[in-house]
Amino acid sequence: MKRINSLLLLTALLTGGSAIGQQKAAVSKDPKMDAFVNELMSRMTIEEKIGQLNLPAVGFDVTGPILSEGVDEKIDQGLVGGVFNTFTPQAVRKLQQRAVTNSRLKIPLLFGYDVVHGHKTIFPIPLALSTSWDMDLIEKSARIAAREASADGLNWTFSPMVDISRDPRWGRMSEGSGEDPYLGGLIGAAMVKGYQTNSLANRDAILACVKHFALYGAAEAGRDYNTTDMSPIRMYNEYLPPYKAAIDAGAETVMVSFNDINGVPATANHWLLTDLLRNQWGFKGFVVSDYTGVSELVAHGLGDLQTVSARSVSAGTDMDMVSEGFLKTLKKSLDEKKIGIDVIDLACRRILEMKYRMGLFADPFKYVDEKRAETEILSAANRNDARKIAAASMVLLKNENQLLPLRKNAKIALIGPLADNQRDMIGNWSAAGDWKKAVSVMTGLKNMAPDLKIVYAKGANLVDDPHILKQINANGAEIHADSKSPDELILDAVKAAKEAEIAVVVLGESAIMGGEATSRTNLDLLPNQQKLLKALKETGKPIVLVLMNSRPLTLTWEDENIPAILETWFAGTEAGNAIADVLMGNYNPAGKLTATFPRNMGQIPLYYNHKSTGRPYNGVSNEKFVSRYIDSSNDPLYPFGYGLSYTTFSISPVKLNRTDLQKGRNLEAAVEVKNTGKYDGHEVVQLYIQDIYGSVTRPVKELKGFQKIFLKKGESKKVIFKIDEEMLRFYNSELKHVAEPGDFNVFIGSNSRDVSQATFKLSN
Ligand code: BGC
């Protein structure tokens, strides 16, 4: 019997589930809402119902909203459920007014936008936020983002992005929380709470949208939009948990991913959107496609626009972003009996219910408040929080001879194309952010330490590579070659370094080299920047390398040759101030990597929670027939969880209070952490567990807990983790969530590599 079930399940997975239909109706617990929506729907024409499923983009520029073709008229005709890319109270009021005045049934619109890491006050890119390992700060960033967005007329953000990625070739790694499903789930949940608060009735709450459902980060070869083909057991254990955690935290909407999943693209995948999301996970909100996700199914090869539209809505995609496939073809499919009215009714009901629950029918202008926009957006308080959050996201990768922090009156050479740069500070997907409001490193240092003597040299163009330049300039990077030649730029920089005690060199990617459609096959520093760094090394001056980038880079040469390296990602509006805080020791860095830094491209995908293989390599021998490379170490350059501090910490060997665990009880794993250095600081103490023998192979270790603690210099603290049977559960070959009796290793340490170990047994 079990075997048959799992076979059925597997078949469903492989085929994308049962055919069109079979969606369960949402079970509402609000009779008043039911009565309202029933009455409204009884008056709606088919066209108006389909209209609610339509989400066009209405562009915005500095002079006001530019309506994409025919949207005004469609709003008047009741053929639009919501729009995105329109904000400011003035612009939103104009469209909402149309909807509630001109349209027959006066149904208000939703206003969505990519408020991904802040609205106008931009926080660090999401990957950077995750390296803070600080759920309170992350929630706060989402809260501030929601306050600003709702003050600017918006009521729906396309965030959090919780796609697990183990492949830094994929530029969208910058938009998520890295490679770990447990940490990714906690972060997704924290962001949902920050956006939605505890009630949609609140004026400063906005709808969260968990994206991109699902497995988008596992695109083959790290190439954006590419196919995903994945075993169910890997999906359930390694990739699905963050989506589920964000949905369990109450996320009201879900965005479907672009990719093919085991032969059926997500947008038309009934198994994914109905069997799993709604029937297994109990999701009650609505599902939106990604940008033209519906019409792209034609290019995927699923059929013409009519076929793919019918298939998408039947699979469980309720709202069609931009394609207008629903608008143009669903009525025809209905007339031809290719879909039933129940499918359209269900999707329409889900959207109307959301509008009702948000209070939009009671007050369509709930989020339109010019006064709020004036006082709540980009306030000094928000910027101050952004600065703190940015500092907390920075990761100190190397600090030989305690080169950092800098002395307050040092003479420094500040070098690099990102050193006096505002444009790139806010990173990618900072949609409403204004880079002109961002603080450069130069300004940050001057603000913080007026006595610092700074000699500046640009040293290199941000990008010289003609191929990359062409791509990114076509998408708005506006990078122009300096009037000086690359050699002249380097000569200037060398001269500046020679005049100074220390060189602070700010290098990395352009912001636009990260985010959507920015896959890369080489993650070294760009050749012109490397050339600069090598010339500076020749001067013999100590170098601090300050990095800005959207994903892990391959930094093997830099690690071998540069004494201090600070990873600052793209830190947002307050980047320069926060970087100055860290460089000058005003803030002691405590960030820890959430994505492994490989030594070279050939190691990718490289992640800490991998399986063992039958021939594991011990890292030292020259044995041939083991799982290793002959031209590279297996080990990463910087492992998951890694990051230094200006102080040092000792962590005692892990001690268990018992070595036998039973269901319903717990055991304690404890370490003593001591600040043994010269600065007060934070340490993220990390708990990993390995299920040594299982009915299926299990990872060599998995993050199961962490505590970020603050210790004054000389101070110690006992850190205790409680371990129970629930933490040991995983999805087995029948996709049952079980813990199997047997032996487990517990590891505690300051990163996934540097840990001590103990063993316990889970008994029946
Ligand atoms: C992206 C989404 C985004 C949407 C709307 C798409 O291209 O994949 O992440 O939310 O556009 O801007």
UniProtKB/TrEMBL annotation:
GO terms for molecular function: beta-glucosidase activity. GO terms for cellular component: periplasmic space. Its main location: periplasm. Its EC number is 3.2.1.21. GO terms for biological process: glucan catabolic process. Residues 1-21 form the signal peptide. The keyword Signal applies. InterPro entries: Cellulose_Degrad_GH3, Fn3-like, GH, Glyco_hydro_3_AS, Glyco_hydro_3_C, Glyco_hydro_3_C_sf, Glyco_hydro_3_N, Glyco_hydro_3_N_sf. It catalyses: Hydrolysis of terminal, non-reducing beta-D-glucosyl residues with release of beta-D-glucose. It is an enzyme of class 3 (hydrolase). Keywords: Glycosidase, Hydrolase, Periplasm, Signal. Residues 683-752 form the Fibronectin type III-like domain. It is found in: Periplasm. PANTHER family: LYSOSOMAL BETA GLUCOSIDASE (PTHR30620:SF16), PERIPLASMIC BETA-GLUCOSIDASE-RELATED (PTHR30620). Belongs to the glycosyl hydrolase 3 family. This is Periplasmic beta-glucosidase. It comes from Pedobacter antarcticus 4BY. The lineage of its organism: Bacteria, Pseudomonadati, Bacteroidota, Sphingobacteriia, Sphingobacteriales.
